[in-house]
């Protein structure tokens, strides 16, 4: 009996052993086929990458890109306009009827500082003074170049990033107060110069070359800042959403600033992910067109702000060449080509007003506004007439004084 049982066990062992070896052989065959297939797919992808993406090919031929250490999200300063906001979600009631921007000829406006916008009493006093001086347009800052939102935004991404200042003003109340004085409310929004959101959302940021490290406009220990990527759909839509929110709150005009590619050290190492053959000018003008479409649909209008230092008029040959080279990097060429139908030129205290006037007269198809400083370098206040200088009453302008104090006569 024991002998018969041993023979049966031996037959079972041989049978199961054959099944086991057959399974292992089949598994080895599948593994070999998987490796061959993987090598084929990898080779195909490598060929496509080699032919379609010059930056990849160049990196292979020229050696690896230097790895840039990852940076932390920028710390906000303790200034009221850039301090850490509270965790409470602000309230913003959208107006029932979208504002309609009316064209009344050359507009004469003033800048209202954030402190005035945040104080009903200060805003009322400034508006009363401006109304007596014949002002019909008031500009307030809504998003600074530090990325901080100065109004009570409900934008989800901004709230996640804690981008709203705790001292933020109520956008609807400010716009309504300006309208009640018969003036046009305008909000200024910095577009792509934004270290806060670019530090919070990597997919929105300019990167170093082919790395995942954020590009900085200077060394980190020298205060270098990251920028939003003008070619990032997420970054572009973030700015547009803020502008639409302000328009729905009652602002008839959005003055968009910092519509440019970043400036700073090692700009040649910045990567934007632009499609091959796509120009910087096309990227910026496309953003302005998309912004304008959505703002006009909401009942507002868009004005693109340009700094006076992008204008070559009045400069010697060497300085003019330097301005042209800078414009090629920042705007992809002549900056007026990206602005659309409305533009603002912001002057410095020492800008050549005659040269600026000569520049804007070359482009009569654009509705120009000149932002003129109404304070002297020594701190003495100057009158509105002195600030306007050679432009005259027929030129649309906005007087700028960081204190919000103006003398109209």
CATH architecture term of the largest domain: Alpha-Beta Barrel
**How does the overall form come out from the CA principal axes?**
globular
Uncertain spans: 1-6, 9-33, 35-101
CATH class of the largest domain: Alpha Beta
Amount of beta strand:
5-15%
Query: Largest sheet, if any?
Result: 8 strands, parallel, barrel
Question: Average pLDDT, to the nearest integer?
Answer: 81
Kindly identify the CATH topology of the largest domain: TIM Barrel
* Distance between the first and last residues' Cα: 126 Å
How many distinct helices? 12
Number of strands: 12
Arrangement of strands in the largest sheet: 1-2-5-7-9-10-11-12
- For the CA atoms, what is the radius of gyration? 30 Å
Note the run of SSEs as H and E: HHEHHEEHEHEHEHEEHEHEHEHE
Whole-number tally of structural domains: 2
Helix/strand structural class: alpha/beta
Proportion in helices = 25-40%
Structural write-up:
- There is one protein chain.
- The protein has two domains: 51 residues; 331 residues, Alpha-Beta Barrel (TIM Barrel).
- It has an eight-stranded parallel beta barrel with strand order 1-2-5-7-9-10-11-12, surrounded by four helices. The chain has a two-stranded parallel sheet with strand order 3-4. A two-stranded antiparallel sheet has the order 6-8.
- It has twelve helices and twelve strands.
- It is α/β, with parallel strands linked by helices and 409 residues long.
- Helix content is 39%, strand content 15%.
- Strand 10, helix 11 and strand 11 form a beta-alpha-beta unit.
- It is globular, with a radius of gyration of 30 Å.
